[in-house]
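Q: Predict the bound structure with pyridoxal-5'-phosphate.
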Amino acid sequence: MAEQARILFEDELTELKENNRFRTLNLPQGLDLTSNDYLGMAGDPFLRQVAIDALQNGLDIGGAGSRLLRGHTQSHKALEDYAAMYFNAPQSLFFSSGFQANYALLTTLPKRGDIILYDSLIHASMRDGIRASDSKGYKFTHNDINHLEVLLKKHDAPSKTLWVCVEALYSMDGDFAPLNDIVKIIQKHNTILIVDEAHSSGIYGPKGRGLSQSIIQKTGHDRLITVHTCGKAIGVAGGLVCASESIIQALINKARPFIYSTAPMPLQAYLVQKSLEFLDTDEGENRRAQLLDLCKHAQSLFGGAGSQIVPIILGDDHKALSVAAKLQAQGYDIRAIRPPTVAEGTARLRLSLSSSLKKEQLENFYSELRTII
Ligand SMILES: Cc1ncc(COP(=O)(O)O)c(C=O)c1O
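A: Predicted complex:
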């Protein structure tokens, strides 16, 4: 049996290698053009000092139990109260990761008989949640409102809730969801909208509160759930779900990834709160302004939707790998993104901008890229 398992994986791994799909873990090296640390918070001296002071003052490192047992601490409670206020929501709930938050939402809330309609480019965490849920999922063409409307009409029935899942800013294509148009059409049906703000939290919307701030007035939180991952612009780790009181209570009582898992580190919760507080200051506003200015400049060079995520689509997996390797040799930390993370034939470099990057560095990278492709 063990021998069979070994041979089976050997074949799979060989096939991955032959198809340029084999993945390896590579340490950061060179100018960061790949991480999601969009506002430079991950290594920020302020946040580092906050962590040192907190530990010296006795803050616990480990969660030491499920949130429903002794793992619920003052740091978790304070973060959730603060995040609800920050993101303008009735309540929030903190998970160890954004993946866990999305997975918990979709495996807990939609009931048997409900329908989940999802954008074809949503993240693996939502997709896996949909697959493991009791409901049927149907995808609509990326950002295609007409297709979404066709599916809404087709599946609408008095007994069903229609769940609609989108990302505010798509992680691999860097384009924005037409949230206002989506809200206009879903309001005609019995829907609940889930907006994953993984790549927009901290950056977009008033004081970085996210793009769904523009629709909250229209939807109210009875019909809207937002997810704010905390390991990207916020610079720490975790996932905050913002929703109505009843949805948060349902998650606390029913979400298996929440109930049967050790609480996120209290230190993690504390640092997420401090990062959000920082992002609310003038310095946070300055970083956002720097990043958005850089985004405009990048758009003038590379095209794209003008966000901090710039896909450079090369098509072929081997080409993406070899172009990435050449750029890495020139001191740029940029990685190839291949299927199944992106669709077949759309292997790419995912250029990711950070507020600390200089325009000149971006221009030099652009020139280097032009000489290679
Ligand atoms: C759109 C999107 N949602 C959710 C996640 C998962 O978040 P986390 O990294 O906190 O698990 C990611 C991370 O890659 C993401 O890009």
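A: The first helix runs from residue 2 to 18.
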